[in-house]
Design goal:
alpha+beta; 4-stranded antiparallel β-sheet; two-stranded antiparallel sheet; 2 helices; 46% helix
Length: 163
């Protein structure tokens, strides 16, 4: 005589195995796609951060740009940081930070600073209220460049971040 309990137990085992298999497949697809999204965001932050750093450490356009006519923000003249242009950049971020993001072509926030203070009131330029120690972000990329400021080699940093 065959027992019906054994047949029911075998069916339960097959259904459980199918459900378990679907769960494992779902987990793998989700985990692979999630890590790709993170990599994509970090690649985009790196690209945009490099673009912003290169723009800031360029002469800008026009060469003697003002807040009213700036097309490309740049703070250097002859490969050295120009005090007048850095003050203009600081004022522009204080007056209209979103305009600077638009000029840089980014949706992400940024913060530019050097090893020495930019002026007596701040260490850097970027999102108002931000400094190099209080950035709260879900993704953050740090871009480093070497430049000349006050006739000394200086390291310049751009933090680009997603809140």
């Amino acid at each position: 005589m065959k027992s019906k309990k054994a047949q029911a137990w075998g069916t339960d085992l097959i259904i459980a195995f199918i459900i378990f298999s679907f769960a494992i497949i779902f987990f793998y697809f989700y985990s692979f796609n999630y890590s790709n999204e993170t990599e994509d965001i970090l690649e985009l932050l790196t690209y945009e951060g490099n673009f912003i750093a290169d723009s800031i450490l360029s002469p800008g356009y026009p060469d003697q740009w003002e807040e009213s006519n700036v097309i490309e923000i740049g703070i250097t003249t002859d490969g050295k940081i120009n005090e007048t242009k850095i003050k203009k950049f600081y004022q522009l971020t204080q007056n209209n930070y979103n305009k600077t993001k638009q000029i840089f072509g980014t949706k992400y926030d940024y913060y530019f600073f050097m090893g020495t203070p930019i002026n007596s009131t701040t260490e850097g330029i970027g999102e108002p209220g931000t400094n190099s120690t209080n950035i709260i972000a879900s993704n953050l990329m740090k871009i480093t460049r070497l430049t000349i400021y006050q006739n000394k080699p200086t390291t310049a940093y751009v933090y680009i971040f997603q809140k």
